[in-house]
Design a protein that fits this description.
3-stranded antiparallel β-sheet, two-stranded antiparallel ribbon, mainly alpha, 7 strands, Muramidase, single chain
């Protein structure tokens, strides 16, 4: 701790010199440790934050680029392609910060069956609520941001874990299905993604390295391979979208 020495009046005997904690430092020291700081829990930072980062900064991209040996523009190009590189939080409910999401109904169908939802229930939901469960259809349009959240809420009524795993989360829109690379449970991932943009970056990092093994294609700027591994083999034009974003960032970082 820092201390401020008391200035005694000249000629007045005070005995041992007293020391006092500066009021500002005292208040700072009294702040409770934020047990919700996931970066601190994961050993990424030395001190817990108090509110969570609202976005990933240019400096953050540069740090990750140095860690992975990948150009910073390649990493950020994916953020541009996925979310326009905008602040990755929404307020689906007034006053409640929530990571930007995209709900994927075909994931919900597959994961629900995997987690034990009965085939009968799946068939019923697919028939009556096709926006909640359905087979993959490349012509499907996801709709508005607000609809994603409402679908997530409805899907949670069927199976909460399956619903959370069936959304892509945050600035880089990584599917919740891969939570185990970073968190002990899907709910922990959801809480972390809703809390801090640095958790979006961490999830992006482990997704690239552990799930998709994308470092070499990113180093080679192999846009087609990047697009297929990140967005699936059925991607259409995503490779060009990333390349265009990369070229723009090379011109103006």
């Amino acid at each position: 701790m820092k201390w401020m020495k008391e200035v005694a009046e000249k000629g007045v005997a005070l005995g041992p010199e007293p020391w006092h904690m500066h009021p500002v430092v005292f208040l700072d020291a009294m702040k409770p440790v934020n047990k919700q700081c996931y970066c601190y829990k994961q050993g990424i930072v030395d001190r817990p934050c108090q509110s969570g980062a609202v976005d990933v900064t240019k400096d953050d991209f540069e740090v990750l680029a140095a860690q992975l040996g990948v150009e910073r523009e390649v990493l950020r190009a994916i953020a541009v392609a996925e979310t326009g590189d905008k602040v990755p939080f929404k307020y689906y409910v007034r006053g409640e910060k929530h990571a930007a999401i995209l709900y994927e109904r075909h994931y919900m169908k597959r994961i629900s069956l995997k987690l034990g939802v009965s085939p009968e229930t799946v068939r019923k939901v697919e028939s009556s609520e096709p926006d909640i469960m359905h087979s993959y259809d490349k012509s499907y349009r996801h709709g508005k941001d607000s609809q994603q959240y409402q679908r997530l809420l409805r899907a949670r009524e069927i199976n909460s874990d399956a619903a959370n795993m069936s959304c892509s989360w945050g600035k880089f829109q990584v599917m919740g299905e891969y939570y185990h690379h970073l968190c002990g449970s899907i709910q922990e991932l959801v809480d972390a993604q809703n809390y801090c943009a640095m958790q979006h970056l961490q999830y992006f990092k482990v997704f690239l390295v552990k799930e998709k093994r994308m470092l070499q294609p990113m180093k080679d700027k192999d846009w087609l391979t990047i697009a297929r591994r990140y967005n699936g083999t059925g991607q259409i034009g995503y490779d060009q979208k990333i390349e265009n974003a990369y070229n723009s960032l090379k011109n103006k970082w």
